[in-house]
Amino acid sequence: MSAGGGGRVSVTAAQQGDKALRVRTDGASRGNPGQAGIGVVIERAADGAVVDEIAQYLGQATNNVAEYRALIVGLTRALDLGATAVEVVSDSELLVRQVEGRYQVKHPGLIPLFEEVRRLRRRFSGGLRISHTLRGGNKRADELANEAIDRALGRGGRGAGATAPAGGAVPQTAEAQRVGGSGVRVADGATEVGTRGRPERPGTPADGRRHHAALCRGRTDGR
Q1: Which of 23, 24, 126 lies closest to 84, judged by CA?
Q2: Phi and psi for 182 in degrees, rounded to 5?
Q3: Is there a domain that residue 81 lies in?
Q4: Are strands 34-44 and 50-61 parallel, antiparallel or unpaired?
Q5: SS3 184
Q6: What is the pLDDT of residues 104-153, one digit of tens each?
Q7: Residue-number span of the structural domain to which 21 is assigned
Q8: What is the pTM of this model?
């Protein structure tokens, strides 16, 4: 059973009747360390249909920390969706090689995150496969990570002094919402984006029409 854009689903997993999902993850950091966010796209491994998307703002973090947090969030969500086998696709070669066991994890900030990935990995009875792709192969996850940062900073909330949660823990707040339909919610209550639920902004055509009507009334009233 093959799957495009990121490798092959294990035949063994398919034969066992496991529910296989593909998890595309990306972490972004502007400054490294800097303002960081994650993007996760979860697809059915069988046909590539998107099951869920996540955009989450982290605060201050390095790019490698953001990559690991994206993976942890993606694996956790895959388990929530009932996956028993998972295929991970990431454009971080360091992350992929460390999860494969080809590179050692030496940085103290990454060790607890790596251990969390190992713990989650053991929960997939059908196994976990991970493959590396170029950024173009993970375009949607990259977009989500950057949308999370843009929305969080653009709303006048956390600024350059924002910090990521201590201890390497992934924030599990109600505001770290998943994408559903045409909308995207990002962490910390940032404005929803997409066609659904988008708030009207000042300076829209409706505002212009109201202003024009007021001017006309002023002329006829002699004001």
Answers
A1: 126
A2: -100, 5
A3: yes
A4: antiparallel
A5: strand
A6: 999 999 999 999 999 999 999 999 999 999 989 999 999 999 999 999 99
A7: 11-220
A8: 0.67
